[in-house]
Amino acid sequence: MLFRAISLLICQLVAILTFAIGFFPQKSVLTGDSEFLYMPEEHKPMEPQFEKMVVMVIDALRSDFLFQANVSGFHFVHDLINKGEAWGYTAYSNPPTVTLPRLKGITTGSMPNFLDAILNVAEDDTSSNLKDQDSWLSQLHKHGKRIHFYGDDTWLKLFPSHFFQRSDGTNSFFVSDFEEVDRNVTRHLPYDLSYQEWDILILHYLGLDHIGHKGGSASQFMFPKHIEMDAVIKDIYDAVDERTLVCVLGDHGMNDMGNHGGSSAGETSAAMVFISKKLANYKAPEAQRGVQVPLINSDGDYQYLTRIQQVDIVPTLVSLFNFPIPQNSVGIIIKDFLPLLGTFAEIKVKDNFRQLMKLANNTPEFAGASIDMLLEQMKITQDDLATAATNYNYIFLIIGLSILCFITIIISCEFYRTFKQTKILSLTVAISLSLGLSMFSSSFVEEEHQIWWWILTAAVGISWVMNPSLTWDHFLVSVCARLIRGWNNSGQKYIYENTIYQILERYPNTKWLINAATMFLVAFETVEFNLMTFVSSFVTVTLCLAYKGCWTLVNEGLVPNWLQAFVNMTCSFLIGPDNMLKEALVPLARLCFQSILASIVFRVCYNRFKSSPKTLQSIIPLINTILVLQTSPSNIPLFLLFTVMKIAINRILTNLSSNDLSQISCILSLIMQNFTFFQFGGTNSIATINLTNSYNGVSQSYNIYVVGFLTFISNFAPVIYWSLNLIEVYQEPNKKHTYLVERLPILFHYSVTGVFLLISCLALRYHLFIWSVFSPKLCYYIAWSILINGLLEHLFNPLLLTVTNK
């Protein structure tokens, strides 16, 4: 039976990954360099409108950061726009709104591939290289232009090193830093602006994006960063003449939490501005005439001035420099720049029209058509190309779905045969079918937290009806669940004000008193009070409290005086009096991890030496402390509610028989994992992947495996908590060998919901929200299946039970 359970799990994972290979294939693109398609000889006499160009990408520069009154600190840019020397736009960034696919769009003009959102975090990945794909960089290099680059090293992964005469890359994933990462770019400007031994200067600043990840879009660091970037733009403007075009743009925006990757208005609305003294000689864009920037936009839709597609920058730039449009570009020349092209405007528009028609496999017909008519037709074609589905590999899709359906039938039969006489059969089937059917609705996928709230509410209600004598315990569970539900903004469709999280932020003394109490309660729960265990728990809690306080101070968060004094004293004692708090962060975090791991090893050895049956109970509080360490300060009190909830749940479970206890614990763990994951701030959107705690203890040298592991812990902390804290029933001698067998209900749940999800992705592959809703959900399902169901519950938990059993 054990071998069969493991085999079914492996087959399930193989089926899911096979489907994913077919669903997320590499996008087929045209290779080689493009040529002029309409009257090639007529383009040669045209003189380029500019000799040099500066492309300044400010990562995550949302449109309101540049144009909105009381938000934007780009005062110099505002003056240039008002004088007509700068033209501003709101550029729509197609999701997924992460750097790698957006840079592809900005340079090649192509639509993003969802797989790029995953490859975006793979530091050593080279599958997204653009060396064989046409772009304005390849056109410039082909025509002998000297290109200098400084900033996000994603550019160096995308383009061959010989494209750049000078370059200096900066790691884009160390989000803890937002000062040095920009100084490393700016330090090159004095020399480059003085000698100008370049034709194209590309700068990619990461600091603003990192501030968003650390503190949200309204972080106190945001406005000073605007001023810093505005000063850089002024330095560039003062150093160049009217024959140089300066393009300042964001690769994407961000949501209010400072994250990105999804399709919300804030994430897809990036700022873009073209700057040149030469522009003052031409009419400004119509939306810019008669208005003064910064603007006041009360609609909250992030739409300012003229709205364009971000990919429109590609044909616009190459036309201004008189190069062919890249073959895979779906962009359209920005109409406002046609007067700069003079008599060549019609030729450039028709060349753009023919290039788009070729990409869409349409026959271009523009006899007698005006420029406006051609632009309108190109807009229709662009929309068609933007919504065209990826080239799915249907063989892999069918094979993956078929295997999963077959495995689900086997698991269902095995599940029914093993559990037909138990209480959890109907409950598991009801939960799995309810969630599975919701996979066909984009709104249900976006608001999945609502489903788990009602599942938990129903489960508590049923349990109370069956055990009315335990009314107080059920009341405690209900109160804690309601507080957890109101803690954060959950889901993707609605933003609520005055959540408990937001209220606590206004009262730092209360928040940190609760945090300290939570840390001590979590660390000392179920600990036997001998001297060694007491000292180890006290030391780990003290270090963790000091680290979280230090982290908050470094990020200029509010902390009470008593905590600030405690942090200063701890850092001075452990790190040294000469160390600043910022320098103390990494060694202090490492000290926290080291002390926790040392305590775990000690307790395992000590309890095994004494033949104690409570080894598992003694180390779970230490693992919980790691989860608290990887949690944002305002979410730490949730672990206090988890602990109270767990105590009440355990009192309810003690009334069950031994068999019912382990089986109910299994399905209850599933409910609590999903409920708390969403209430912790998680969603089915890539945008809510939280990187805030992904670099605790990590130095400047980026390590994808360490950062990935820390990211997993910080985002799935509540899931890990409930997975570990409800397995104590398997410590009984007669239950320790049944753990994997009693995972069948969970395996059944993952299989049934997976079948529905895969069918929905296949059936809705042309749906409007396939890439913004269903594809991210599929990615999350894969992550849950591999990381939680596979590695955590079928590998780590059994290993933990084995190590801690006598």
From TrEMBL:
GO terms for cellular component: endoplasmic reticulum membrane; plasma membrane. Pathway: Glycolipid biosynthesis; glycosylphosphatidylinositol-anchor biosynthesis. Its main location: endoplasmic reticulum. One of its GO terms (biological process) is GPI anchor biosynthetic process. CDD domains: GPI_EPT_2. The keyword Oxidoreductase does not apply. It is found in: Endoplasmic reticulum membrane. Keywords: Endoplasmic reticulum, Glycoprotein, GPI-anchor biosynthesis, Membrane, Transferase, Transmembrane, Transmembrane helix. The chain crosses the membrane at residues 392-412, 424-445, 451-467, 584-606, 627-649, 702-724, 744-766, 778-796. Pfam families: Phosphodiest, PIGO_PIGG. It is a multi-pass membrane protein. GO terms for molecular function: CP2 mannose-ethanolamine phosphotransferase activity. Ethanolamine phosphate transferase involved in glycosylphosphatidylinositol-anchor biosynthesis. Transfers ethanolamine phosphate to the GPI second mannose. PANTHER family: GPI ETHANOLAMINE PHOSPHATE TRANSFERASE 2, PHOSPHATIDYLINOSITOL GLYCAN-RELATED. Belongs to the PIGG/PIGN/PIGO family. PIGG subfamily. This is GPI ethanolamine phosphate transferase 2.
